């Protein structure tokens, strides 16, 4: 019987990409995925962007150990980088691997499984132990980040229909609230040749939509050696993907406002609605100029609004735009909060990710919070107001698509929905839909939007899938000659 593992991912899309890569490498080594209660090794891929994220990781580790005391638990990710000793002290934790050494996680996991494998990396020193409750055998974390990229992991459509390929790691910005430079290091880019190789492998494996992710994705390529050939900006990389591969659809995850430069927006104008998803996520944090200055953000509200206008002009009004918004940054006054609400109300957002400020040790905002905190009841009140505004923005954005035809990719459908002969899908412009027909995952379909549920999920009927004898349908993805097409209904 094969050794088994479970991986639990917390945090951002880039962290999930790390988790997907670790899982792929373990599967390729012969290990089987399992539920945490039955797994030989449980890998907890932590986040540390807020105190609540830390708490959730600790709670999961304690729960996993309680339900499966024989499992060897590996803590990795941002929390493991920031406070390795803190996680090492938890019961059942056999290894703590910071982001600096995340590429070694699969090897450590294999060595901790019942069928032992000899390590291939001399950095890993594992002592013999017969119980999961023994002192941690591995603790790897430093500030060099020399082993942070999981470059060799294959990217295939599997558990995730739309997997993430992390092409950029770390961040060289110094926002006053953010702990990421401490937990992931400075900005680093996966080489263009490695990116292209991953994309080609994904297409060969039958993949339809790939998501490029990163901690500061818009900075991809700026650290690459100028003596090497190939693209060195994200815009140039996107063009290379479309020129040199047959990837049907590429989606870009979060990109900082000022990294939407003229070349990247030109690419949106050329490819969006075809092979580039009509979806942009621009972290905002606050719509108040004075708050943005205290956060040390590199743009002002009018800069942000200009980028939104350029994106809408380039991709058309069907683009879905999202943002991150922070509530309760130290010193945030009622007037500043109202400025932020008014600014958000003025822009065509399709969704918002809202979160309360959380002081992180070692950041400038930790000191600001000690000097001028926003009271918790005030933060709760402001979160409530923003949630209502976000819900209104989401519904107003989605309701306009009733009666429209859109492109979508079918997803792995939850059992309860599948039992009603319906299918989960996601449109190219990032709208969740329920199709009134059972379909397998990873199919590109053209759909007609018929309604909107109370929870803002769009209802739709498939119109057609790509015919294997055709090059394209009106409104469908432009395809290069020889690209594999979907089977018709």
- Full CATH superfamily name of the largest domain: tm_1862 like domain
Q: What is the molecular shape?
A: globular
User: Residue share in helices?
Assistant: 25-40%
Mean pLDDT comes to 88
Overview of this protein structure:
This protein has 489 residues and is an alpha/beta fold. It has three domains: 4-140, Methylthiotransferase, N-terminal domain (Rossmann fold, 3-Layer(aba) Sandwich), CATH 3.40.50.12160; 164-395, tm_1862 like domain (pyruvate-formate lyase- activating enzyme, Alpha-Beta Horseshoe); 401-489, Nucleic acid-binding proteins (OB fold (Dihydrolipoamide Acetyltransferase, E2P)), CATH 2.40.50. It has helices at 13-28, 51-67, 78-82, 84-88, 105-112, 180-184, 192-204, 234-244, 262-271, 289-295, 301-315, 334-346, 364-371, 376-399, 415-419, and strands spanning 4-9, 32-33, 41-46, 72-77, 93-98, 138-140, 164-169, 188-189, 209-214, 249-252, 279-281, 320-327, 349-356, 405-410, 423-427, 432-435, 444-452, 458-465. The strands form four sheets. A six-stranded parallel sheet has the order 2-1-3-4-5-6, with helices on both faces. The chain is globular and about 55 Å long. The two termini are 39 Å apart.
